[in-house]
Amino acid sequence: MSESLYEKLGGEAAVDAAVDIFYRKVLADDRINNFFDDVDMDKQAAKQKAFMTMAFGGPNNYTGTDMREGHAHLVKRGLNDSHFDAVVENLGATLTELGVSGELIAEVVAVCEPTRNDVLGK
Amino acid sequence: MPKLTLNNQTYLCDGDVTVLDTLLANKVDIAYGCKQGGCQSCLIRSPNQTPPVDAQKGLKETQQAQNYFLACMCKPTEDMELALLSEEACFIESTVVSLKPLNPETIELVLEYKDELTFKPGQFINLKREDGLVRSYSIANLPSAEKRLEFHIRKLPNGGFSEWAHDHLNSGDVVSLQEPAGDCFYISGKPDQPLLLVGTGTGLAPLAGIVRDALEQGHTGSIHLFHGSRDIDGLYWVDEMKALAENNDNVNYHPCLSGSDTPLEYKAGRAHVEALKAHPKLQGWRVFLCGHPEMVKETQKKAYLAGASLKEIYADAFTVLTEQS
If DSSP codes are grouped into helix, strand and coil, which group holds residue B53? Predict the structure, then answer.
């Protein structure tokens, strides 16, 4: 059996290494950081880890409904495609920084893409 | 089959079932979320048993040291006592040894306890007045054979507990206290790591305790303590901290004043702003933040953006609750 994307990326250890870099990029990104104000940073980091585990193709229990409900308050505040793109871009930049190949990054982006409509409440 | 004990009830945990699933199957009311070790909603503690390594992944080292673990990730191999976080509400008695002013608005309260109590300087303890009013204060001293606890209490306008402690508490009085809690304390293991500590007001209590604890545990890396207030009356222990810095080459102490008319020996400016100005790159640092909630929140974010890892930023925001009289 061939290795899964999650295994190729290095599993949980890779997620742990990526979370710190990724969340820092998100908070420093003026296009999206206002959506992350006013939240508990430790809880938010735990959420980012859950998100990255999903994006890496790892074990997760997210459903489309979770995605819709979890982001509905942000959609009301104007969350749109440009913000979704910015998050994916930061994810790609994080993986590049960690030396992940372009091929695998494309696979990660492909995992995220189907959640777009649910996240944006379309 | 390992036994789980919680609130005097025993539950059998089948080898391949997690603590969370065992408790849920027995209708125990426990918070949980992702069930995969991510969200940390099901954080729980074992007073008697070191949890399996897998169940402590992602937690702060200070939480790991206190046997905190994630119930959803724990398949126990040994019997475990369990304590839900909200239910560790057992109070013990202590007696007031002394009360003395540290500055015009702050007193040092020293209590003596009889029972066994394990604590780390920097953790906080809930103190209870006879009528049930409870407030949390940080521990400023190191454990010793004397069985004493030292707290710094600032008098707040309409602060029911602090006004009472300032005006009505006397030596010999009895005060109830709870088990120490909180994960803002020093952990050994990286003795050469630089430490940044920023506190406002009585945030110095935990921070001074943490610095002394670090030194006692042989910390050799540089230690930078920034203590801030608006004016001189809000600072205290200036001479003590100066002496600590003089006697330890790796300790640097910076009292900061954000009001006008700053005497020469103080830094002019807000403690957290000055700290980040002096140390703009914090990759590999350990950071401790105590005091005003806004300061703590803002600095936590800035320290993280400056490169400190989230797990190495220990923050204790002093939320103020006042009684309407």
Answer: helix
* Residue pair B152/B202 in contact by the 8 Å Cβ criterion: yes
What's the confidence (pLDDT) of residue B157? 85
Torsion sign across C-alpha atoms A45, A49, A54, A59 = negative
* Residue B325 predicted with pLDDT over 60: no
**Global pTM?**
0.79
DSSP state, residue B199 = E
Q: Element (H or E) spanning A65, and its range?
A: helix A64-76
Residue B323 pLDDT more than 50? no
Please list every residue in chain B whose beta carbon sits closer than 8 Å to the beta carbon of residue A11.
Answer: none
Low-confidence ranges of chain A (pLDDT < 70): 1, 38-39
Name every residue in B having a CB less than 8 A away from some CB of A.
34-36, 38-40, 57-58, 300-301, 304-305, 307, 309-310
Among the partner residues B40, B301, B309, nearest to A20 by beta-carbon distance: B309
Q: Spell out the long-range contacts of B187-191 with Cβ–Cβ below 8 A and sequence spacing 24 or more.
A: B187/B61, B187/B62, B187/B65, B188/B217, B188/B218, B188/B219, B189/B61, B190/B221, B190/B286, B191/B217, B191/B218, B191/B219, B191/B220, B191/B221
User: How close, in Å, is residue B102 to chain A by CA atoms?
Assistant: 33
Q: In what order do the strands lie in the sheet with B134-138?
A: B134-138, B124-128, B174-178, B91-103, B106-113, B148-154
Are B310 and A61 an interchain contact pair (Cβ–Cβ within 8 Å)?
Answer: no
Q: Which H or E element spans position B150?
A: strand B148-154
Instruction: Specify burial of residue B263 (Cβ count, 10 A radius: 0-12, 13-18, 19+).
Output: exposed
Helix and strand element counts for chain A (H, E) = 7, 0
- Tens digits of per-residue pLDDT, B5-27? 998 899 998 878 999 999 999 99
Reference B123, options B110, B136, B134; nearest CA is: B136
Q: Over the stretch B154-206, which tens digit does the pLDDT of each residue have?
A: 998 888 899 999 999 999 999 998 878 888 999 999 999 999 999 999 999 99
The single-letter code of the amino acid at B173 is D
User: In the structure encoding, which two tokens stand for residue A121, read together?
Assistant: 């409440």
Whether this model's ipTM surpasses 0.85 comes out as: no
C-alpha span between B196 and B225 (Å, rounded): 6
Chain A residue with Cα closest to B33? A61
Outline where B3-118 has alpha helix (H): 19-25, 61-65
